[in-house]
Amino acid sequence: MRPAVLGRAAAAAVLLAAACSSNSASPSSSKQPTKTSAEVLLNERMAAVLLSEGQAAEAERAYREVLKDDPNNPDLYDGLGSSLLMQGRAKDAVESFEKAVKMSPKRASFRINRGLAYMELSRYTEAEEDFRVADASSLPDDRLAAAINRGRLRQMQGDF
Questions:
Q1: What percent of the chain has pLDDT above 70?
Q2: How confident is the model at residue 28 (pLDDT cuts 50, 70, 90)?
Q3: Please, what sign has the CA dihedral across residues 58, 63, 66, 67?
């Protein structure tokens, strides 16, 4: 992570922790206080920053941690899948992407990412299907990504 990003993120985490500590359970309470939505959001953002900085193993740990607090967020499963794919763990990535697709089947980006993982596993028919579904997206960027990846798939298959 770049020092400037780390500095801002660390400062935000310290401020957030200080603000949240006033909302914590009393010291006599044996139950761990639940995280606030702001804490969960900050952790989600930190995982995304780690991923964008190419720190896949750290991003994986961060995504797994935040999924404990927000298990119904398909974006987190997509991020986890991306971090796994970056580490060469395509089979594990497919499992994570499948959860994201199941939660939000119309999100083309989830289909594209799962298709990329399928390509890594030489599961070309499934990859083609995901890219075909993504190609029907109303978002031009999704359609472009689907077309580019379908072309890459054809190259891998020697069908061009």
A1: 78
A2: very low
A3: negative
For 25, 48, 112, the CA distances from 136, given in Å and listed in that order, are: 49, 27, 12
Q: List C-alpha distances in Å: 74 to 77, 150, 153, 155.
A: 5, 24, 25, 30
More confident residue, 6 or 126: 126
Residue count of the chain, please give it: 160
What is the rounded distance in angstroms from the CA atom of residue 158 to the CA atom of residue 84?
27
97 vs 102: CA distance, rounded Å: 8
For residue 128, the tally of other CB atoms under 10 A from its CB is 18
* 153 alpha carbon, distance to own chain's centre: 22
